[in-house]
Amino acid sequence: MTVTTDVLIAGAGPVGLTLANFLGKYGVRAIVVEQLPSLIDYPRGVGLDDESFRTIQSLGLAEEVLPFTVPQHVMRLVNGHGDVILTNDPKGEPYGWTRKHGFLQPEVDNALYEGLARYQGVEVRFAHTLTDIAEDADSVTATVEHTLEDGSTETFEIVAKYLVGCEGGKSPTRKWMGVNFEGKSPSTRWVVVDVNNDPLGTPNVYLGADPARPYVSIGLPHAVRRWEFMLFDDEPSEKVEDDAFVAELLKDHVPDSTKLDVIRRRVFTHHGRIASSFRKGRVLIAGDAAHLMPVWMGQGWNSGVRDATNLGWKLASVLKGHSDDRLLDTYTTERTDHAKAMIDLSMTFGSIIKPTDRKIAFLRDTAASAMNVLPQVKEYFTDMKFKPIPRYSSGVVVDQKTLAPGRADAKVGGGRFIPFRNTVEKNSPVGLQIIQPRVNTATATNVRLDDVMGDWWTIAAWGNDPTRLLDPEDVKLFRRLGGTFVTFISETQRPWAEQEFGYSSTVVGDTTNALKTWFDVRSVGAVILRPDHFVAAACLAQDLPKAFHATLEAAHATLATVSSATPTAPVETTPSTTARA
Ligand SMILES: O=C(O)CCc1cccc(O)c1
Question: What keywords would UniProt list here (predicted)?
């Protein structure tokens, strides 16, 4: 028996399920094979970022996920005396959601799983294990073993255009690719104890940098509480099976540990590792299969969701014939640096929490107190400014300077205002996500921006109709590719813009001035947004045609598709204007 599909995903964890949702949404066929008989039902990840919530929103699952989250999840580092030495409580909602949420992973993963029922072309097969991979020029063939209810097995093949391994840190797919998995695996062991009947009821995250025994205590939705305790080298892992040992660990953390309804207790270690490439031919990896990081910043789950968000539209573009498969190389290029930065940050956090030497702990606490005295330093930590923001400097991005080289290098003289000077590099939004404020349109009031922008590529201009800035053939081409044109405008001018531009672009009223400020500080008037809401190109209004063609090139747009739609206006191929993977 042989089954065919477009994308075979190995692993029905959050990354595989997120990717499958994206593929379903974009009309791509996918099969997810999962070796377990069902989804994992115990908590693992506990922190969900605003970026991930934006992804869940684009999958149309925000309402389903919200009941399993708690917003504004504050994290405090406390010392051995219980004093708070560092707080992470980032304010604002630049991407449309609070910066951190506590969440129940099994329920959120399940919402992602149930979301797949919307797509006829996507199926999940439990109790299916990937046992072998073979690749040829046109496809990848996976040998899969299905374990039946009576324990017997049957083996068959799935032939796909691409295979994505999302099976976690031990990923057989990564091993098949033969890429390095570089980094460190510190030997320190921790025990995690999750309970269903939170005996404390206090919200948020406490990281206990207590030299007597470092610990973690986290209040989660639905009365779940998590503790983690560091194990000392002379404490064998088997000890966590011993109730008396666990009661001793919990003694200073809960009034009566005999009344706990334990979900699980398990020993784990941390790893900081990253694969040297996330792609080999038709085989790719995502999530823990591609990178592993310690828990401290809550970034394992979120980094995997970032991978799926980056990869989903790229696979769809290649499979729809919009782009050639070099687009898939930009997945490694774009995701590697950020994943590495998260690994480094998480490892650093671990080294702050773990010291059990009292002298080192004293020095750390003293340094933290000193830092808290300086408001700017304190804010740096409170507002989580140390958290790396994904910013792509190469990949599907167009270097803003190359669109107007003369102006970018021009000297300001005679009081002339030359917007590109100074701002090009420092304030360029290229490679960053656009913000997501609340907006109005003719048919919607006070909604999140993405909900009115469409699901695929967007060309947006401030105060202008982008269709009037582009060559008509390019307008047709962009529409043929499924793109949306958007006019951003102050809410006060929306009625005028709807009359003037409403037939050719979606007019979006900026009710909070957030978009005006965003365009203002970056000195740009038009942007080309990728399906994942990252800015591929930004320019002055008149430069939009150039930016459009440079973006096509950066996205490795298939010339056949482009030229058939633009017989009189072939695509400019100006390598110097394009940042390449
Ligand atoms: O990001 C969060 O909200 C919590 C991150 C965290 C910290 C320590 C342990 C752990 O399991 C998660």
Answer: Oxidoreductase
CA of 347 to the centre of ligand 1 (A): 13
Q: Nearest residue CA, atom 2 of ligand 1?
A: 47
* Closest ligand 1 atom, residue 100 Cα: 3
Q: Compute the distance between CA of residue 264 and CA of residue 423 in angstroms, rounded to an integer.
A: 53
Q: Which atom of ligand 1 is nearest to the CA of 101?
A: 3
Residue 144, strand partner residues = 130, 156
Pair 289, 434 in one domain: no
CATH of the domain at 210: 3.30.9.10
- The number of folded domains in the chain is 3
Residue 156's nearest CA partner among 140, 139, 143, 173 is: 143
- Residue at which a domain ends, from 247, 269, 291: 269
For residues 338 and 19, what is the distance between their CA atoms, to the nearest angstrom? 19
Strand-pairing partners, residue 538, are 527
Domain containing 50 equals: 2-70+102-183+272-349
How is the beta sheet containing 75-79 ordered, strand by strand?
Answer: 84-88, 75-79, 205-209, 215-219, 225-230, 189-195, 262-269
Q: Is the predicted pLDDT of residue 579 greater than 60, yes or no?
A: no
- Ligand 1, CB cutoff 6 Å, lining residues: 46-47, 73, 75, 100, 102, 205, 207, 216, 228, 295-296, 298
| Same domain for 134 and 211 | no
What's the 316 CA to ligand 1 centre distance in angstroms? 33
Residue 41 shares a structural domain with residue 61 = yes
Structure confidence by residue, pLDDT tens digits, 189-232: 999 999 999 999 999 999 999 999 999 999 999 999 999 999 99
202, part of any domain: yes
Question: In this structure, what are the phi and psi dihedrals at residue 267, rounded to the nearest 5 degrees?
Answer: -95, 140
CATH number at residue 554: 3.40.30.10
Complex ipTM value: 0.97
According to the model, what pLDDT value does residue 561 have? 54
Same structural domain for residues 142 and 288?
Answer: yes
Structure tokens at 64: 């389903």
